[in-house]
Amino acid sequence: MNRTQIFFIVCLLLIIATVTAKGIAPASGQIPVMETPNGGNDPARDTTPDVPPTPAHTAIPTHAGEGTPRVAATPVKVPTLPPRDASAPTPTALPPLTAAQWREWPVIPVLSEHVRAIYLQGLALNNDPTNFSIIGDCQSVPLVFMGSFDERPEFWPAYDYTHLLPTLTHFQGSFGRRSGAVANGMSAASVFSPFWADLKICTAGETPLECEFRLQQPTIVFINLGTNYGEPEKHADYLRDILDFTLEHGAIPVLSTKGDNAEGDWRINEVIAEIALEYDVPLWNYWAAIQDLPNHGIDDARPEGNYLTRAAWDVRSITGLQVLDVLLHDLQTFQEGNAPEQ
Length: 342
Prior knowledge:
Layout: H1 3-22, H2 43-46, H3 113-124, E1 132-136, H4 165-170, H5 208-216, E2 220-224, H6 232-248, E3 252-256, H7 267-279, E4 283-284, H8 286-289, H9 310-337
Parallel strand pairs: 1-2, 2-3, 3-4
């Protein structure tokens, strides 16, 4: 055996040893490829903030005696709703404030008669009164926005939920599901593009908005948009289109102000307030709810300046639940007062 043969054998043995150590590639030889955005797995769209995984589904208690919400070392400060007086009518007038005064609007909206008219239209269209939907970006995914309310109470943000338990029970199943109209980077324009639809749950050619309404048939829709569209007037145009679609389908739109000032002059929050007045629909002033938090609820560790802190997520979930509670109470009271006599 000459030197060339010996060298060849040694090289062959080294190659075999390397392959054995690293593992053999799949027989197909194919390299895994990332799916396109409308496949729902594009990490540029579908990533979520770093939070613990959500535990397996567990039925929530139906009264305060079952289960206890977790106690945080420093509970977040959230608005406290006054006790309800069953004999007092629910306020129905919008706040006498202009859109330019949006900072002074209450966190929890005051409802108008228009909300009740939308509700009746939705019932006629067979919308499910126990379902709500969410339209938003990565900060509206269940892991950071109300999703824990479909799980055990120890995973809920620290708060006294005694008076909110009926609302938690009523909407159970909507909190933890992933909306077809929620994705990282979602804007008011994106919801009208089939390119942004998740083909795992949506049909070909459907927009995220059409997909979500088909799947959920919601009575209430949270519209949490604005961070990903820096042109306020164009955002307003698309937002009006979303409201037109929502109202046409008999769902109550709940507009929300945003916590960040990505556009630099707070104009988008003012535009959102303008449209709430224009359409006479509820505005949840989330911005006002987080002003007492450190750095006003914005994560200063993120250079973008538009990501919320964990405490701000908690305030968002709790005040969002309070909005649902006010709506549910008003609509149930209205329905009971207009029920035909037996």
